[in-house]
Amino acid sequence: MKICAICLGVVQTGQGQAIFTAECSHTFHFGCISNSVNHGNYLCPVCRAKWTNLPFGQQNFFPNPAFEVPRRQPSVRRWSIVEPEPNIFSDDEPLPDGTADPSSNASSGRLQNVSIKAMPERQAVVASESLSDFSVLVGLRAPPLSVDALRAQRAPIDLITVLDVSGSMHSSSKLDLVKRAMNFVIDNLGPSDRLSIVSFSNQARRVLPLRRMTDHGREDAKRAVTLLVASGMTNIVEGLKKGVRVLEERRHQNPVASIIFLSDGLDTCNRSPNELDTPSNSPSYLHLLPASIRPGGMEDGQIFAVHSFGFGSDHDPLAMHDISDSSGGTFSFIESYEMVQDAFASCIGGLLSVVTLELRLTVRSASHGVEIKSLSSGRYASEISDQGSQGTINVGDLYADEEKEFLINISVPALANTGDERKTTLVDVTCSYKDAVSNETITIEGDLVEIVRPEYVSPVDMRVNLEVDRQRNRLRAAESIAEAQRMAETGNLRGARALLSDRRSGLRASDSGQLGDNLCMWLEAEMKETEDRMGSRELYERHGRAYALSNMSAHGYQRASTRGNDSAIGSSSGMDAPTYCGYVTPNMANLVIKSRELSKAQDDMEE
Known about the structure:
The protein is of the alpha+beta class. The protein is built from 13 helices and 24 strands.
C-alpha cells in the first residue's frame, strides 16, 4: 500500500484522485504535490531528490502586468503554478482614476470633524493648595459614516492576507473555514480597495498579486483561495517577509495599508529546538522579520500594521502578539475554529471605515506652574517636551465613530494672589489630522480646561468626575491583566489569580463600579475570565496566555479584538450586539452581524 507523504492518505487508483509518480519513483496525490510545488518545493518530500520534471496542470491566476483591462473583456494571464514570481512585486494593479489624487474625492462630500472633549478630574481645588498629580481626561471621537456614502467617505485600502497553509490546517476543516472567511472578506472589499494573498508552509508564495476588487478581481481572488491546499511545515518568517514585500515594492499606494496574518502553529522552520519544546518566551527569530513590522525594528519610516489571528490552541501567542503590538495592529485569539469569519469581519469592519489619517493630539500647559507630568497613552507613542509645557500623542488612523480616551497627569500650583475670578486654566487641547476624503490637513481646537479655586471646597466638589473614574478603572484593569500575565509566565499562577481577584474588588468599590457602569461591568467580567483561564499550568498554556495577550492588545490601542470564544461584539449565539462591548465601532458590529447572518443562511442550505 502506497501512502502520500504529504496528506498521509492512501495512494490508489480508482479513488477519484489523480496520481503523480516522480522520477525518483515516489508517488503522491496530484493535488497534494501540485500545491507543494506551488509553494516552491521542488525537492521530493521523501528522499529530497531534485526533480527536473515537475507536476503541471493546476493554474494560478495572475493578471497581465500592464493591467490594460478592456471594459468588456478583462485581460487575464493564466500562469503555470511553477512559473517563478517576479523579482520585484511592482506588478500591482493601478488605482482607479481619482484615487491616486485624494483631493479629487472632495466632491464625495466632506466628513464631519473629529470631536474633542476635555475635563478635569474635579471642578474645584482650594486656592492655597498645590497638587503634584491631577488628571485631565481628553477624549477623541471620529466622525460617523453614512451607509449610503460608506465607500465614498472612507479611505480605500491595500490589504495583504498572509495565510498559514501548513499541514496542520488540513485537520478539523480549518482551511475550509479560512477559505469561507476569505470569500467574505473579498465580497466586502470595494472596487477601489486592493487585495493580495500570500500563503505559506515550508516556503511562502504570493498566490494573488495586489488586485483591485472589481468583479474580475474578486473572481481571480476567489480562484486563488480555492486552490489553497494544506501541506508542509510552518514558516511564519517567510510568509510575513513576502507580505511586507508586496507593500514595500508596489508602484501605487492607497491611503491605508495593512496586513491580516493568520496561523495555527509555531514557526517550525525558524524556531530553535529548545524554543519549540518550551514556547514560553518571545522567539529569537523575530529579528529576521522586516524592520517595518519587527519589534523595535524601525523608529522612523513607514510601519505596516499587522493584525494577527491565532487560530486554535496550538499557535504562538507570544510571537503573534509581539508582531502586532510593535506594528500598531491587534492580536486576536480565535479559540473556536468556526469563529474565524466573524473575527475577520470585525477586523475589516474597522479597516474599511478609516476616516481620519495620521491624527496627532497636542496638549499644552495654559498657566504658569501647570506642568504635564505623564501621558497615559497606552501603546500609542507619546512625548513630553518644553520642560513639561507640551505633550503629544500620535494616534494615527481612526475608524468611523471610534473613540480614544487619555488621562493627562499634571501638577496644579497654589494661587499666590486670589483675585475675584479664582480660576486656573490648566491646559488647551488641539488635534490635527488628514481627512480621508479630501486629504486636507485639519486642525481642531478643544475648549480650555479650567478649574475654580475657592477658599474652601465642599465634600461634593471633592468627588472625582465619573468619566475620569471610568478611565482610571480601564487603565487599572489593563495594567492588572498585563501584570498577571507576567506573573503567570514565571509560574506564579496563584499570585496572578489573587492579583486579579483583588483588583476586581477594587473596581467594584469605585464610584462608577458602585453605580453599575457598563464599562466597569465589562472590565470585571474580562478580568474574571482571565483569572479563570489561569486555573492551572495546562489551562494557561492552552488558552489562558492567548486570552490575556488579546486583552492586552485591545486595551493598549483601545481597539476591538476577538478573544477566546467571543467575537468583538460578543458570543456568536445571538445576532445582536450586547449592551456594551469595549472598543467596538458600529461598522465592526454591522459586519459581524452580516457574517453571522450569512453563515446561518449557508448552514441552513447545507442541511
